[in-house]
Amino acid sequence: MPRIKMLDMMLLDELFEMGGGYVLNFSDRTMSSFFASELNIDIDDPIYRKDGTSKAKRLRCFLQTVDAQEAVRVLRALWEYRQAIRAQNAVEEKVVNAEGRYLELIGRLLGKPATVVVSPPPKAGPDRTRLATLRDKLIALAHIPPHPRGTAFEGFLKDLFDAHGLKPRAAFRLVGEQIDGSFDLDNETYLLEAKWHNERIGVEQLHTFHGKVEQKAAWSRGLFVSHSGFTAEGLQAFGRGKKIICMDGLDMWTILEREIPLHEALERKIRRAAETGSPYIAIAELFN
After folding, report:
1. Are 193 and 213 in contact (CB under 8 A)?
2. SS3 content of the chain, % helix, strand, coil (to 5)
3. Does residue 89 sit in helix, strand or coil?
4. Contact yes or no for 239/209 (Cβ under 8 A)
């Protein structure tokens, strides 16, 4: 698996405020307690002190000593702690594209294909030109007449999935039904349903799409994208434990505006659906 590089460590120094030997707001005692209670790790072990005894030097040594899976486990815990104390103290984000760059690093350490291009120096972050173009396209769709807008919306989604390396396939037609597209996520094939209506999607259309997915291979899954969203009654009546997840226009805007890797957003939706049975949880809630 990939290991943490020098440029990765420069990003982590920024994210976790490791200048001057510090790590976030930890004291020596609270850092030791955090690693012991949250992660079952003795960060005071001499093996992590070979480069120095400061909190930052011990953390850097730890991350460069352990394997990628263990590094990711620790980085996720530190990120959650970082976000919690920032929210509690209403601290403004100062690191450019912090969340997007952090998620990209996690994905690379886990061996996932890059979803955006990161160019040196590290503060350049992802390819914002392409993301900005997609944001402009999403806004422009609102000004297209209803009939051609549906086809244009499908094209936008194909561009969005292509930009994030999910191998999208354009709309195709089988006997008696239309499939708006498909894409790959973690070696699973997802069928796509895309709607841009003035009204929110109700239970009937959810059941119709679920029926299409059920008629395919047993391992098929589905993503229903409705720009206007879904009715609360429809989601409730649709029930739990289905093979599809749902995304709305606000989700897409959140992904593009906050530069969240699409595969990470979908994976969190899938995980929350597995945990709760609910096909729709807002991206903003999953990344708060």
Report:
1. no
2. 55, 10, 35
3. helix
4. no
Answering whether pTM is above 0.85, one says: no
Q: Are 186 and 267 in contact (CB under 8 A)?
A: yes
Angstrom distance (rounded) from CA 2 to CA 112 = 10
Whole-number Å distance between alpha carbons of 13 and 19: 7
Radius of gyration of the chain (CA): 21
> Scanning the structure block, which residue is given the tokens 């051609």?
148
What angle, rounded to 10 degrees, do the helices at 55-65 and 68-89 form?
140
Of 174, 173, 172, 154, nearest to 162 (Cα)?
Answer: 154
Helix locations, 40-95, DSSP H = 55-65, 68-89
Residue pair 225/195 in contact (Cβ under 8 Å)? The answer is: yes
129-286 is classed in which CATH architecture? Answer: 3-Layer(aba) Sandwich (3.40)
Let me know: does 24 contact 13? Beta carbons within 8 Å: no
The Cα–Cα gap between 122 and 125 comes to: 6
pLDDT of residue 205: 92
How far is Cα 286 from Cα 271, in angstroms, rounded to an integer? 10
Q: Which residues pair with 188 in a beta bridge?
A: 185
Contact 93, 241 (CB under 8 A): no
In degrees, rounded to 5, the angle at the alpha carbon of residue 114 between the alpha carbons of residues 71 and 282 is: 85
> Is residue 91 classed as helix, strand or coil in its secondary structure?
coil
pLDDT digits (tens, 9 = 90+) for 227-271: 999 999 999 899 877 889 999 999 999 999 888 888 889 988 988
| Closest by Cα among 284, 278, 211, 208 to 246 | 278
Beta-ladder partners of 247: 225
pLDDT digits (tens, 9 = 90+) for 145-199: 888 888 888 889 888 888 888 888 876 555 445 667 788 887 788 988 989 888 8
